[in-house]
Amino acid sequence: MGTPSDKKLINENGLRLDGRGDEELRPIKISTDILERADGSAFMEWGGNKILVAVYGPREAYPKHTQDIEKSVVKARYNMAAFSVDERKRPGPDRRSTEISKVISEALSAAVMVEQFPRTQIDVFIEVIQADAGTRIASLTAASVALASAGIPMRDMVVGCSAGKVEDRIVLDLSKDEDNFGQADLPMAVLSKNKQVVLIQMDGDLSKEEFARATDMIMKATDRIAEIQRKALSEKYKIENLSESQNGGE
Predict the structure, then answer these.
(1) Which pTM was predicted?
(2) Per-residue pLDDT tens digits for 169-216
(3) I need a labelling partner for 227 at 20 to 30 A (CA). Which of 25, 31, 91, 178 fits?
(4) Which Enzyme Commission numbers does its entry carry (predicted)?
(5) DSSP state, 99?
(6) Distances in Å between the alpha carbon of 124 and those of 5, 34, 40, 134, 146?
(7) Burial of 11 per CB tally in 10 Å (0-12, 13-18, 19+)
(8) How many angstroms separate the CA atoms of 72 and 117, rounded?
(9) Which helix (H) or strand (E) holds 210?
């Protein structure tokens, strides 16, 4: 990270380049049941990110040597489409997508009641169709909605956000330029009710005071994002109940 001398990330009015204040989120929209053949699915738009998630399972783990006799195994596969970024990336998994798949799998495993489904696996397929900074956090937040949409028992929803340092200021939900040229990036995800941290990573340097401010901003933001998750799921069940009542009245 690091800002080129000609790249200003804070304008003359003290606002960020996209007009946001320090603690403002980019626009977030989540919808469910996008894919008919998946057990659960979600589509998220977060800033310029567009992410599709499909969930299948629990189903018998295969090959059999991957089975855990005590619990289900959550397998997340994160993939960025070749056309998701300005410079076309090589199709297929790379080191970054493998690492993100692993941390998302671990974070979701903390939320799912895996002990209820021994010898099974739950597959979570994440496709980043358009990337605009913060894709791992957006993917994890959307995946949690897709799991709930599939009716998989969960202890809590996973919700995430990022903060970072830009021109010596701590700001929430980094944009693409802030992520590329800022001084630090701190993505974090928690269980929405008890705030147990299930993912935390950092790129760059923060002082103890800056780290404390960044995490405080993230924790407050996750409450707002969790409300968007709940609204997306409540809309799903509202539509289902309406459909059932209409069919019952025929």
Answers:
(1) 0.90
(2) 999 999 999 999 999 999 999 999 999 999 999 999 999 999 999 999
(3) 178
(4) 3.1.13.-
(5) H
(6) 42, 14, 9, 18, 8
(7) exposed
(8) 5
(9) helix 208-248
CA-CA-CA-CA torsion sign (81, 190, 227, 34): positive
Q: Listing from the earlier edge strand, what are the strands of the sheet with 40-46?
A: 28-32, 40-46, 49-60, 120-130, 73-80
Q: How far apart are CA 102 and CA 142, in angstroms?
A: 16
Q: Computed from CA positions of residues 164, 141, 191, 78, in that sequence, does the dihedral angle turn out positive or negative?
A: negative
pLDDT band at 89 (very low <50, low <70, confident <90, very high): low
Chain CA centroid to CA 223, Å: 14
b/e map 12-49, b = 16+ CB within 10 Å: eeeebeeebebeeebebebbbbebeebbbbbbbbbbeb
For residue 136 the two structure tokens come to 């791992």
Question: What residue type is assigned to position 209 of the chain?
Answer: E
